[in-house]
Amino acid sequence: MHDAGAACFLHVAISAMGTAMSAIAFPSPDPAILARRDEIVVGLAALVPPECLITSVDERRVYETDALTAYRRLPLAVVLPRSTEETSKVMAWLHNQGVKVVPRGAGTSLSGGAIPQEDAVVIGVSKMARILDIDYADRIARVQAGVTNLGISDAVMADGFFYAPDPSSQLACTIAGNIGMNSGGAHCLKYGVTTNNVLGVKMVLMDGTVVDIGGDWLDASGYDLLGLVIGSEGQLGIVTEATVRLLRKAEGARPVLFGFETSESAAACVADIIGHGIIPVAMEFMDKLAIEICEAFAHAGYPLDAGALLIVEVEGSDDEMEAQLQKIVAIAQKHGVKTVRESQSALEAALIWKGRKSAFGATGRVADYICMDGTVPTSQLVRVLNETYRIVESYGLRVANVFHAGDGNMHPLIMYNVNDPAEQEKAEKAGEDILRLCVDVGGCLTGEHGVGIEKRDLMTHQFTAADLAQQMRVRAAFDRDWLLNPAKVFPLEGRAA
Amino acid sequence: MILSPTTESDIVAAISDARAKRTSLAIQGGGTRKNLGRPAQAERTLSLAAMDGIVFYEPAEMVFCARAGTPVATIEKMLAERGQMLPFEPMDHRRLYGGAGAPTIGAVAACNISGPRRISHGAARDSLIGLKLVNGAGESIKTGGRVMKNVTGLDLVKLSSGAFGALGVLTEATFKALPRPETSATLIIRNLDDSRAIAALSQALGSPFEVSGAAHLPAGAGAPEARTLLRVENFKSSVDYRLGELRKLVGGDIVLADDETRALWRDIGDCAMFAAPDDRAVWRISTAPSRGPDLVRLVQKGGAVAHFFDWGGGLIWLAVDAADDAREKDVRAATAACGGHATLVRAPDELRARIDVFQPLPEPMMKLSRAIKTSFDPDGILNPGRMYAGV
Ligand SMILES: Cc1cc2nc3c(=O)[nH]c(=O)nc-3n(C[C@H](O)[C@H](O)[C@H](O)COP(=O)(O)OP(=O)(O)OC[C@H]3O[C@@H](n4cnc5c(N)ncnc54)[C@H](O)[C@@H]3O)c2cc1C
After folding, report:
1. What stretches of A21-90 adopt beta strand conformation (E)?
2. A167 Cβ below 6 A of ligand 1
3. What is the rounded average pLDDT of the residues B64-77?
4. pLDDT digits over A97-116, tens only?
5. pLDDT tops 60 at residue B263
6. Same domain, A341 and A383
7. Is this prediction's ipTM beyond 0.95?
């Protein structure tokens, strides 16, 4: 079962976190639905076999939160359909009954996107986890939505192909969740995020209608519903299948470590590399605290004496990598780079990425944290980074920064003690200040983790009432009664449609 | 009547006036694409041509924002001066339609206009990162922004791109640019039939050599012999290396240098092969590359057509006799059999008013489309019927 896998994978992060937080509001559950719980469970039991329906408190607990573990709500029941048809039957019935639905992949959302509510049924895709078709001539894979992100790449790796978006959670997270959040990853600088790599989805609307959006060709006719669905955080329908693009792996790839004296010079170097029109496959940033934490965890050989580190990956033939690297090194030297270390073997390269990809888990071993996800224009990196330190320090807290620098997608990890309510409030306040700043310098609240419940109430800082009302009307075009994942994305106050 | 707003408030005024008078508005940029889609069914035309100018260009971030009426040529020149380009190579429809206007960036965004580099660098919608628009209720709406990674709220940028102006009057578009490659070259394999050609293109696209153009021109499409074309773009030594590797993989004996490569792919992207005679109807079909040759064969069963392939075989251009409804029945049946979607890009107004121009959608998708249309444009005054009757 996927959630078991996810729980295991996330063990480090979760166990360090507590349960005390309560700042984010949940809508109060509908008492009429709560009163009908038994009846609803009986109704569901008539639609799916027992192994697809979870009703006991103990088993429901597995689903009560996602990777925003400080918040949790026990769902009314959990259904794990085995097919699109089964999903459709269940959705149609719940729609008739007026029961809310929270779609779920592996539950690794960092923004609370998959957190249930007491009057909602969770519909999980973990029993739909097969790869249906792989076609190298057309370079596509058709998969059920519960397949893991890494599961796709693993299936085609031996033949030299891969699925490009690579969230650090890729071992656990599902393509369904990736579509829900329009997830990214380290290599998205060159290859784009989920929305640039999915060609089609099969989706069940709230009333049970099944729609095929896109297909195995490019650019479907009509409004771009595919572009709308990707990143819609489970508010438009339940995705049961997807057709994704496969890419051929480069001839070679080489991550290179660049150690700098200060965060400032590393961030300035990032902006300068992009400014020179050089786009490496990946360009990841770690500050001193992040280096210490990740090195202690992964022993990747990160330079502990550096104030900040860039992992820059180049790819291609040996000559192509060499040529690009030369240019990058020359720029880094202008910014006073102290150490430049190329990985000497595949093993070393893998370790370098392991250190980066386990950054969140490793931080979770050290302290409780909340992870911000704002994006800023690369020209603003230095300023926002400096301000981030200042803001977090002004609340008396510590912050580690580890993020996708090439596209300006910052992940300050604000550390605090979850058992100290005052400190927790400070951490959340500091996070809000940082996100407001990201918006103010021309960026946005979230680059890849989604709004979920976490950033819902900051939406008014980025959007006007008219902007939000337009989005909500579009949302309502799919789900007039707001039954699908309704507590997410849009501020609870002032919902128009 | 043609309205030429110069500010957003002019647009808002035009919309409220149209609402009050219960008339509709045809939206246009330079007017070079007015034949794309069903003929306008509007009393007034709202021309964005005077709403032009660059709002900002940050070469170091490779991002620019332009007002909707800014000519594409102005933008391409601005980018070229800093060694950058539009990644998606927008098609210039004047080669097919004629006409003297200037294509605008707003129309590129609204109609999601891409070219050969679509296969490697995405469509216009993939580089479009922010929009400002005025919806049919006269409200100014902002969506997206100026950063590439942005998942804040619903992606109305993508929804609006490819909606052909039916959801809102775009006033500003923000795009990501890319560095212009130092040089380019094209490898030509001669005399392959369609199936072998598409197989070769697939093999090349499935290689690590970063092919950025993959087309097949059968005999008669621009030359007496069939040509299968692969483009690579990068710095010189890399281009040479990749050409060598591709040759080992799929053969090929002629290499076109940078200048010729640019001209050739411009022609392919603009469908120049079917420019004349201009009384032929032209279809554009997107399908899975491996099924491209079958799709063409199915259409050919009903009578001769001229064709060529771009996008590794996944984009089929067909030129047919405009009589007999431009062979709509054959094209739709073949597309249904093979999967994909077909758009009647060039045909007389009378025909485009009578038959579907875009791929007909199944009813549940039409229902969603109508609801979305209403959510932006409650009175249905913006480009009504341009894509489908009723949306
Ligand atoms: C340690 C760690 C590292 C991470 N690193 C990254 C990273 O590098 N990049 C990144 O982008 N994210 C990252 N994430 C966040 C998270 O992994 C992604 O958001 C991921 O895509 C969620 O996938 P999931 O299967 O766990 O989905 P869930 O968490 O179960 O759900 C995510 C959202 O999608 C919706 N959803 C789920 N299934 C469906 C469906 N079938 N149909 C419609 N909607 C659905 C849910 O309702 C929810 O809103 C990280 C998380 C952790 C814990």
Report:
1. 53-54, 77-79
2. yes
3. 98
4. 999 999 999 999 999 999 99
5. yes
6. no
7. yes
Full residue range of the structural domain in which residue A160 is found: 131-248
Q: Which of B133, B105, B48 has its CA nearest to residue A464? A: B133
Could you tell me the pTM of the whole model? 0.96
Q: Are residues A106 and A20 in the same domain?
A: yes
- Mutate which of A73, A82, A115, A169 to test ligand 1's pocket (most atoms within 8 Å of Cβ)? A169
Instruction: Give the domains, in start order, of chain B with CATH numbers.
Output: 2-179 (3.30.465.10), 183-269 (3.30.70), 272-354 (3.30.70.250)
Closest chain B residue to A183, measured at CA:
B151
End-of-domain residue from the set A359, A376, A407:
A359
CB–CB of B199/B313 below 8 Å?
A: no
Question: CA B275, CA B279: separation in Å to the nearest integer?
Answer: 9
Beta bridge partners of B318: B283, B307
Q: Please work out, in degrees rounded to the nearest 5, the angle formed at the alpha carbon of residue A301 by the alpha carbons of A337 and A16.
A: 110
**Which residue among A318, A341, A359 closes a domain?**
A359
Q: What is the pLDDT of residues A251-293, one digit of tens each?
A: 999 999 999 999 999 999 999 999 898 999 999 999 999 999 9
Look at residue A213 and tell me if it is in a domain.
yes
Contact B371 A220 (CB under 8 A): no
Q: What is the mean pLDDT of chain B?
A: 97
Residue with tokens 């890009």: B345
A1 falls within a domain:
no
Query: Residue B67's pLDDT is what?
Result: 98
Q: What is the CA radius of gyration of chain A?
A: 22
**Residue closest by Cα to atom 6 of ligand 1:** A167
